[in-house]
Amino acid sequence: MNLSLEPLSVRTTCAYCGVGCGVKATPKGDGGIDIAGDSNHPANFGKLCVKGSALGETLGLEGRLLHPQVREDGALRQVSWDAALDRVAGQWQDIIAEHGPDAVAFYVSGQLLTEDYYVANKLMKGYVGSANIDTNSRLCMSSAVAGHKRAFGEDLVPVSYEDLELADMVVLVGSNTAWCHPILFQRIARIKETRPHVKLVVIDPRRTATCELADLHLSVKQGTDVWLFNGLLSYLARNGAVDADFVARHTNGMAEAVAAADVDCADPAAVARKCRIELPVLMEFYESFAATAKVVTAFSMGVNQSSAGTDKVNSIINCHLLGGRIGQPGMGPFSITGQPNAMGGREVGGLANMLAAHMDLERGEHRELVQTFWESPRMADKAGLKAVDLFRAIEDGKVKAVWIIATNPLVSLPDADQARRALEKCELVVATDIMQNTDTNACAHVLLPALGWGEKDGTVTNSERRISRQRAFLPAPGEALPDWQILCRFAQRMGYAGFDFNSAHEIFDEHARLSGYRNAVDDVPRAFNIGALAGMDGKAYDALEPVQWPVTRLDSGDLLGQARLFGDGRYAHADGKARFIAVTPRLPVNTICEDYPLALNTGRVRDHWHTMTRTGKAPKLADHIAESFVDMHPQDALLHGVRAGELARISTAWGSMVARVQHGGGIARGSVFIPIHWNGQTASDARVGALVNPVVDPVSGEPEFKHTPVRVEQFRLNWHGFILSRSELNLDSVAHWTRIQGRDFARYELAGRQNIADFASWARDLLGVQGEQADWLEYEDRSAGVYRAVHLVDDQIDQCIFLSPRQDMPSRAWLAGLFSKEQLSEIDRVGLLVGQPVEKGADTGPTVCSCFGVGRNTICNAIVQQDLQTVAQVTSCLKAGGNCGSCVPEIKKLLVETRVAVAEERAA
């Protein structure tokens, strides 16, 4: 008998963005997990971006919350699950009894699996009797939800990823797809190679990596999207680019929408001036859209995160409805979700103004239907508090208990310092998390340990409505439990029936049955229907293949998903017709002024995710962008007295932070960009959420993350430095620091204001080096203010510190390589004292390609030495750019810069 000794792989889905890539996790002999793309998953066909590829580096238990804890007299104490849940249930019951059900709330997350989300929604709306359950998806996707419901009658994404490949024109609006959804971007890039006539248009105030592939970039002024698309609607109507038959048979409201657009946007020249783009560029976009039937307009946070986000969504949808560019292959408006299960949360009514199974909280017949199905004692009868309003209500004392699950609002919310004030005043803050130390957990009275990715089991739904299984391949650590089980145990303590689930499979089955239950209220069936997935046994659930809803079961028993919606021209409104929505353009609520003369834009970087509780653990992801930064135009920097490479303080009317100035070359004058990821565990003062204004869209409740007036000014310092250390350090005494995870160490970038009288004593105290017998190498130039020291243990580098009044200090990449050596050579010791590598090629430079760990210096040297001319040649030589491709724009830039530098050197 031939028995295979190959370890079994588990097919699951990625923990990050809404693309929903399939992953294969395979145990390795050393106890680790090998991560690879699942070639059979239709979202990615085996490809993974660098974040997905590095998931194996994030699975360690360092920093994990492993046991229930209760805060008493300011200190956390480990307790049993019974004790922790008894305390939470007891306080909730007391608060509800005295103040009513609206005095308690859940704040949950798109990181939850659908089964977790379902239980939380059922518990709060159907048993507690309040709709005070909102989610961090409010911060990223709620404008898309509201726009879909206004236009289509239901929160429906009509297209699939395949449509990006079938289109003749792809328009990316407010989306740095190359960095934020790399696998989707690579699908577009491959189509551009095989079908060069496909036109890619990017609409974004910044010139991002995505623009490198674009045929046309419209660098519109922040907040002017409605002018742009109202102008397009007006242009299409005036130039006969209207599918009159489609409009007449399948829509309502066209005349009103066009009339509203004509008021301010009938003149393309006026639109170009308002959007601050060249008229020929605008006209090329309008003419190309009008001439192309197969257009997909994909939009993301740059559209949604606005005080006019819902109107922006509808202005895009209007243009597709006018020409009938919807419901058929290769066309349609496409909302690209941010989180792995933002769509699944919407399916179960995770937002405070929704009900499960895409039903409406404000409709009495829907409330009755859901309550009947749940057999619940009561049902919320009005919308709950949306995220920003919820934290205001907590600070005002109206909400007295909040349970936060799988999210970090003290970093991610706008006006984040207000959120901290709110939690500090709240009677009961419960946090369910996988990490012990987060900004939010510091305010919690009760901490509950949850399972993380690789440990939990359930389903997620990606941006194209595809339901996929997320399967466990790791044992549960410590006392951690799945979120649904924690909530069920709590519900039982509250005396609620209906929460006796024994597995995620049982919850999914109830979710599926509810989607099909009486699914024809007023003879208008709900499009969200996965009733065909009900009745599966545990084995069938475990084997469930990715499928797009709505789902039907064929006579053969096979499941059939639906790639796109509205092919029959029928929408979810009562009359079956889509709605044009008349929208009037308006500027962001808070405009720039004399005190705050620049407009802040926020977003992601390539290799990190949200608040870095996962990606921050992966050395592979740390080096590409190691610190928070403020990207600004060189002329703005000069005007505000700051320089590239130096730290600056960025302030708004709501808060301030410190970041390093850079000139990325893609930012217009009058604007700055700061990434969202850094938090209180990774930097001393870099939470951009503290800066962001709390104004929200009046329809969706989504905050204005893309436009906050700011001021940038010099952050005065006496010295700069960095530390590499195998042990964790306390740097509270330092004016500014950032922590970066290395492979065998933690790296700290430092800056200070104090005058250091004795470098050696100060450095030893900071590093915790005791005793005169320690193997301590040091170099000091007191007149220049330069100091270098290395602490060795058994001839191996344990810590090193470098200080200087200037920014030009030794290469971190070179020093990082020394930590992997079991014993330092004499030439290494010399290099440490000199402050630079003695051996040629030892300094690979900052990471460019994280997938293969290829540094800038390595790429530049290869370009020169081997006369490389193209990205393909760089990839062939070094592998760089050969996996997810998100570093390709940077490699292109290096090719140009290096060749120019070589030419100038030869000319000299």
From TrEMBL:
It comes from the Bacteria. Residues 7-63 form the 4Fe-4S Mo/W bis-MGD-type domain. CDD domains: MopB_CT_Nitrate-R-NapA-like, MopB_Nitrate-R-NapA-like. GO terms for molecular function: 4 iron, 4 sulfur cluster binding; metal ion binding; molybdopterin cofactor binding; oxidoreductase activity. SMART domains: Molybdop_Fe4S4. InterPro entries: Asp_de-COase-like_dom_sf (IPR009010), BFD-like_2Fe2S-bd_dom (IPR007419), BFD-like_2Fe2S-bd_dom_sf (IPR041854), CT_Nitrate-R-NapA-like (IPR041957), MoPterin_dinucl-bd_dom (IPR006657), Mopterin_OxRdtase (IPR006656), Mopterin_OxRdtase_4Fe-4S_dom (IPR006963), MopterinOxRdtase_cofactor_BS (IPR027467). GO terms for biological process: cellular respiration; nitrate assimilation. GO terms for cellular component: membrane; oxidoreductase complex. Gene3D superfamilies: 2.40.40.20, 3.40.50.740, ADC-like domains (2.20.25.90), BFD-like [2Fe-2S]-binding domain (1.10.10.1100), Dimethylsulfoxide Reductase, domain 2 (3.40.228.10). Its cofactor is Mo-bis(molybdopterin guanine dinucleotide); [4Fe-4S] cluster. Pfam families: Fer2_BFD, Molybdop_Fe4S4, Molybdopterin, Molydop_binding. Keywords: 4Fe-4S, Iron, Iron-sulfur, Metal-binding, Molybdenum, Nitrate assimilation, Oxidoreductase. Belongs to the prokaryotic molybdopterin-containing oxidoreductase family. NasA/NapA/NarB subfamily. This is Molybdopterin-dependent oxidoreductase. It comes from Rugamonas brunnea.
